[in-house]
Design goal:
Length: 248
């Protein structure tokens, strides 16, 4: 299980550092009125993928089950996810995905030729929230007062620069290569004085992005049931002019 967590977190961290300069083209868009799709949302979709000449290469329309994917998990090609994220339940959208955000110069097996742009039409059937929660600064303060374990997973350099939140535990979660520090698991359990996965756990990072990656892994892959992230991270905390103190 630890190996799974290391692999997932390393992939997520590397993905968060990538900058995509190529974007999809939205051909048609009929917005829905339901829940918005955010990072790590679970999404049910009906879709049809075709070439620019109209030939369909894949579809699940009319089948028994919709496609179910979790956002930000690299479960679909980048361009498809780019077209889905930010939409809402009920949305119907048609997009053109450039080859760079599809299967690139290698193509997709015997079906998708190299360097091929693709057309996707999809409908968002349902949206479920991530397994972890995003909490405000005031909610975090209350949770710490009620003995939640709040881990500031940034680096020592970042702690020195900004300070840390009173009652939180500075504990760097990733090494300089982006690999998860396995000993953090033991640290969490020691702080909670329990081996239970029901511990109320909050991750704090610079802007909430890295914390959300870790929170998703703990809740989805390791079975922790009460996981949260500080929304906007330390950056948002500072913008609210809330106090930070030295970590030593």
């Amino acid at each position: 299980m630890k190996k799974i967590l290391i692999l997932i977190c390393t992939i997520f961290l590397s993905l968060s550092l990538q900058v995509q300069s190529v974007e999809i083209e939205i051909i048609n868009d009929k917005p829905g009125t339901g829940k918005k799709i955010i990072k790590h949302s679970w999404v049910q979709l009906e879709y049809t993928g075709s070439f620019e000449n109209g030939k369909v290469f894949d579809t699940n329309v009319g089948k028994d089950r919709p496609l179910v994917v979790q956002m930000s998990m690299k479960e679909v090609i980048p361009g498809f996810e780019q077209g889905i994220i930010g939409t809402t339940k009920g949305t119907k959208r048609k997009i053109k995905i450039p080859a760079e955000l599809a299967y690139g110069e290698n193509g997709g097996g015997d079906i998708i030729p190299p360097n091929t742009d693709l057309i996707f039409e999809f409908e968002v059937i349902d949206v479920l929230d991530p397994s972890y929660k995003s909490v405000s600064s005031d909610e975090l303060i209350e949770m710490i007062e009620n003995n939640a374990v709040a881990l500031d997973i940034r680096t020592e350099e970042e702690w020195d620069k900004t300070g840390v939140i009173k009652g939180s535990f500075p504990e760097t979660a990733f090494d300089k290569n982006g690999k998860f520090q396995v000993y953090v698991m033991d640290k969490i359990r020691a702080l909670a004085a329990s081996q239970s996965q029901d511990v109320n756990l909050i991750f704090i990072s610079h802007d909430g992005e890295t914390a959300s990656m870790l929170a998703n892994s703990f809740s989805e892959d390791l079975g922790f049931t009460n996981v949260s992230v500080l929304k906007g991270g330390i950056k948002a905390w500072q913008n609210e002019n809330k106090k930070l103190g030295p970590h030593k």
